[in-house]
Amino acid sequence: MATKIEDSDVLIIGGGAAGLSVAARLRRIAPQLGVSVLEPSQRHFYQPLWTLVGAGVLAKERTVRPQASVIPRGVRWIQDPADELDPDNNQVVTAGGRHLPYRFLVVAPGIQIDWDSIPGLPAGIASGPVASNWSYDTVDKTWELLRGFKGGTALFTLPATPIKCPGAAQKIMYLADDHFRRTGVRDRAQIIFASAAGGIFGVPKYARTLNGVLARKGIETLFRHNLVEVRSEKQEAVVESLDSGERKRIHFDLLHVAPPQSAPDFVKRSSLSGAGGWVELHKHTLQHVRWPNVFGLGDASDLPTAKTGAAVRHQALVVAANVAAAAASRPLPARYDGYTACPVVTGYGRLVMAEFDYELRPRESFPFDQSKERFSMYLVKRYGLPLLYWQGMLRGRALGAERTILSHSKPALASAGIAVGSEEARQEGKS
Predict the structure, then answer these.
(1) 31 an active-site residue?
(2) Taking the model in full, what pTM does it have?
(3) Catalytic residue among 342, 353, 379, 413
(4) H helix intervals, 91-238
(5) Is 358 a catalytic residue?
(6) In sequence order, what are the residues at sequence separation of 6 or more whose Cβ sits closer than 8 angstroms to the Cβ of residue 181?
(7) Catalytic residue among 55, 71, 106, 165
(8) Mean pLDDT by 10-residue block, N- to C-terminus, for the chain (431 residues)?
(9) Domains in the chain with CATH codes
């Protein structure tokens, strides 16, 4: 028998970066609203550091905390997966059979990794020279393979589907190149990037720099090519041209895969989804296009911008402000302009801090040209951004407070015990 529990003023599906940021912000600006978070996981991950975990910079255990420790005070945590979205009746049905009524719903469940959609990929990760930084359970295998690489072909891929942090597919490739040079095997290595995208980056200002990185590192590219099969027993990958449909086989000695991804199945089969199964939102207000008491953000949405934590940081403030206004029967005051960011690590100690909006216009936070590779920006990613995440986003702080962390990297890094320019920091990742 289904169990009924008390109503929520605001029910948030998802206890990741998006859901918790909205919950924490609502507790600050509208404490009169009862907020519940529906999230089954017992662990909370800071996923942007997984690129550095895969490159041997730090242990993956540094990226995880108990979920209970990050649930905002005053927010009810419902530990059950969502199974059915029923906006006509203002309720969500859980996998455990509970019916959860709400006044307002925020859909922020994150993204689904579709490992099985590439034949041979799960088996290759389990037992072959195949790795992926897109999972806590697989990220340490990337470093294992990089450390053991003695030469041959290292293949890196980006799929044809939208994915969270698409830039991460190339970041680990640049770090691999650096590592191979340090260990003396780069002259015996061929590095190939098979990407379903049409180029290395969508914003011309940053693409110019990254094309230069590819040339400097001698990395071969196969753009508009999608990985469709992994034959790990033969150490062979099959990629398909998105233009001609022609398929080619590539031998590999190391394969790193950015896996295909999609909205969670319960979202895809709901009436809240649109084209491709993503939650349909007004791209500026983040309100659902058909149900005015439903809002959404993050990786499961159809917003036409890169799926990154930086995008979520801005989206969460918009959603919280607009939900609070809607609950008080006021006009929606906040608008989202598509801001997102991709800190592209181009090597140990080097990073391009790409920031842009819906129109692919740079939206830079620092008073210098962020398209240049910089050591200071690497430090911001390694130390400043995690501090911003745990102390800013997940505590519902406004962008003014978070920008203080971003735009004053020395105090932020000092809080983490790192002096900018120190030899300790410069040696990051060399062991």
Answers:
(1) no
(2) 0.91
(3) 342
(4) 121-127, 139-148, 168-182, 204-217
(5) no
(6) none
(7) 165
(8) 60 98 97 97 98 98 98 97 98 96 98 98 97 97 98 98 97 98 98 98 98 98 98 97 98 98 98 96 98 98 97 97 97 97 97 97 95 97 94 84 48 45 38 29
(9) 3-112+262-327 (3.50.50.60), 114-261 (3.50.50.60), 340-426 (no CATH)
